[in-house]
Design a protein that fits this description.
By secondary structure, the chain is mainly α. Helices cover 81% and strands 0% of the residues. The chain is globular and about 65 Å long.
Length: 504
């Protein structure tokens, strides 16, 4: 259990920065949806979905490759500088290519009059891609608190800049315009609209890069061609895996405008409603992301151990991931009537996607946990196969279900496509993994926890039609306590208060 405790501690630290950071960014959503109409916010969600894909391409699996070879090779510094030089070179090349083909790219993504947004995000994502390596280095060195501190500061700066550009600058222009007009008016002032969101993102990203200078400067920069070829050979399937995976995650927001050509405004409005409501489900994404930050260094460091203890540690990690994931699902769904106020009432028509996306993200998190079998056995091509399967399923199901449902609720098809696709690849990965790297997962126990969570969720839905609002919230808290109590008893987890009493 020592390894699990270490994993839990690191997950908590990474999770604090991830959860608090994303929650604070999440709090910007009400600002956006109250300032901008659904079709304008739809452009933000739409462009950020492309940015997510670009970031994965520009990382091309080197982050995971760094962990693999830094633990495998004797010279971890050589692995790090080789990765930095490689990613830094491709990031600069990306900026140059986007600048050269800016207008054709803007036409292809159906935003011919928004080229400035595309350029701002291209620079941002290139810097982000390079910064991911110093962040990975911090994780490798187990400097979780420095990692979390920089991530949190980045969020704070981004929020501050958003508030400055979107709220304070217009007020200053009305009262003391000369203070900000020198930069505000040349960019278009208030008419630049959502563009200021991208400016704030770029500036905060540059500041983060400056804060990571200690992890970059002072290194003896060396590159090994032989090592780089080995790393690329290991990582290129992860690139395909990552691209297919991120395309799958953002498929709904990316494909809706292409499915409803001729109804651009309605399509963007659908993207805006969908994008705003899946932000509520982001709690599950934050948990998965926090777990991922701690899990990759954990599995590669444990891979060097002998015996069955490491396999038991992997199984325990999976079990507790499912336990906490289901608890998060119940918490979000029980308190959705409160959480929904983070988006404007005009977006509430899309609340029905939240439970579907929560379960979809849980399946995706389990799929990520299962990925250790092909990462540890160097069969990363299987990650590629599974991600391609997910991508094909997601594409076909989106085209079918979104069109079937149509305007204005087609985004429901995207949510169900995500759940079905993630469930299928999760199941396939489990059965293939049993052949190459069998692990004694407690599937029966995890299945019982799932049944318990679903019974409690459905039970609350039934009782809401019987009891008053105040009583039902008491029932929801009671049900959460029942779930936690069952887990504590079944897993024989120590409870601090009871433990102290026993000692006395």
């Amino acid at each position: 259990m020592a390894g699990i405790k270490s994993l839990a501690k690191d997950t908590a630290v990474y999770g604090l920065s991830s959860i608090v950071g994303r929650f604070l960014n999440w709090c910007l959503v009400p600002l956006y949806v109250y300032l901008f109409p659904t079709q304008e916010y739809g452009i933000v969600s739409y462009l950020y979905s492309f940015t997510a894909v670009a970031l994965v391409i520009l990382n091309y699996g080197m982050e995971t490759g760094f962990f693999r070879f830094a633990n495998k090779e004797g010279d971890s510094e050589l692995v790090y500088t080789t990765s930095l030089i490689s990613v830094g070179t491709t990031s600069l090349l990306f900026i140059a290519l986007v600048a050269l083909f800016l207008h054709p790219i803007s036409d292809v993504i159906l935003l011919p009059d928004k080229s400035i947004y595309v350029m701002l995000l291209a620079i941002t994502v290139a810097i982000d891609a390079f910064s991911n390596l110093p962040f990975a280095y911090l994780r490798f060195k187990k400097k979780a608190f420095r990692f979390a501190g920089i991530k949190m500061l980045n969020v704070g700066i981004n929020i501050g800049l958003n508030l400055f550009f979107l709220l304070l600058c217009p007020w200053i222009m009305r009262n003391c315009g000369w203070l900000v007009s020198w930069f505000y008016e040349p960019m278009g002032g208030a008419t630049f609209g959502i563009g200021w969101i991208f400016v704030a993102n770029l500036l905060s990203t540059v500041i983060v890069l400056l804060m990571l200078i200690p992890e970059v400067a002072g290194k003896r920069f060396r590159i090994s061609g032989v090592l780089l070829r080995r790393m690329l050979s290991y990582s290129w399937p992860l690139l395909v895996l990552g691209v297919a995976g991120i395309l799958s995650q953002n498929m709904g927001q990316m494909i809706i405008p292409y499915l409803f050509k001729g109804s651009e405004e309605a399509a963007r409005s659908m993207v805006g409603i969908y994008g705003a409501n899946i932000k509520i489900a982001i709690v599950m994404v934050m948990f998965t992301q926090a777990f991922r930050y701690a899990y990759e260094p954990f599995i590669f460091s444990r891979a060097k151990d002998e015996g069955e203890d490491k396999k038991q540690a992997y199984c325990d990690a999976m079990k507790f991931f499912v336990i906490f994931g289901l608890f998060i699902f119940l918490g979000v769904m029980f308190f959705l009537p409160i959480l929904k106020h983070f988006v404007a009432p005009s977006y509430w028509s899309g609340l029905s996607v939240v439970p579907v996306m929560m379960l979809a993200e849980l399946c995706f998190g389990i799929f990520f946990n299962l990925s250790l079998w092909y990462k540890l056995t160097d069969r990363t091509q299987w990650g590629m196969y599974l991600s391609l399967l997910c991508f094909v399923l997601m594409l076909v199901l989106n085209i079918w279900l979104v069109r079937l449902i149509g305007i204005p609720d087609g985004y429901l098809g995207s949510a169900w496509a995500a759940l079905i696709s993630y469930f299928v690849v999760m199941t396939v990965s489990y059965f293939v993994g049993r052949h190459y790297y069998p692990l004694p997962y407690q599937t029966g126990r995890m299945g019982l926890y799932l049944i318990l969570a679903m019974v409690l969720y459905i039970g609350v839905g039934y009782l809401e039609n019987i009891f008053s609002e105040y009583i039902i919230y008491f029932v929801k808290i009671l049900f959460l306590a029942i779930y936690a109590g069952v887990v504590i008893i079944a897993e024989k987890l120590p409870v601090a208060g009871l433990k102290n009493k026993r000692r006395k």
